[in-house]
Amino acid sequence: MISFLIGMASAVTAALGFGSGCVMLICLTLQGVGRLAASGINLLFFPLTGGVSLVLHHRHGLVNWKIALPMLVAGCVGALLGCWAAGMVPQQWLSRLFGGLLLVLSVRELLACFKKNAPLHNPPHGGAN
User: Fold this and answer.
1) Predicted local confidence at residue 59, as pLDDT
2) For FRET with 57, which of 20, 63, 109, 127 sits at 20 to 30 Å CA-CA?
């Protein structure tokens, strides 16, 4: 049942664009799954939920392909480098780096909520090309 709830929470956050990996990795590690094993589970989960979300976002004109395609290429290179580095860095350091990244991003998002005249959302047409 816990695995189902983790999967559901990760899928919802993926569809909202929050990054399902963060939710899944945190929940799995709290359940006692090792950091690298949790990453492997996330990598299995992501193509399916990401693919469904991508199709729906594209249908609503919310994918800017001019921005997305170069990022995809860079992301593939980064994935190769990340896998290589993950095998060389102790798991404890990976957890610390991941926690630090989450902390920085969380503070950034909280501060953005309090900016005056900050838009709450992008318009439906989102600038897709």
Assistant:
1) 94
2) 109
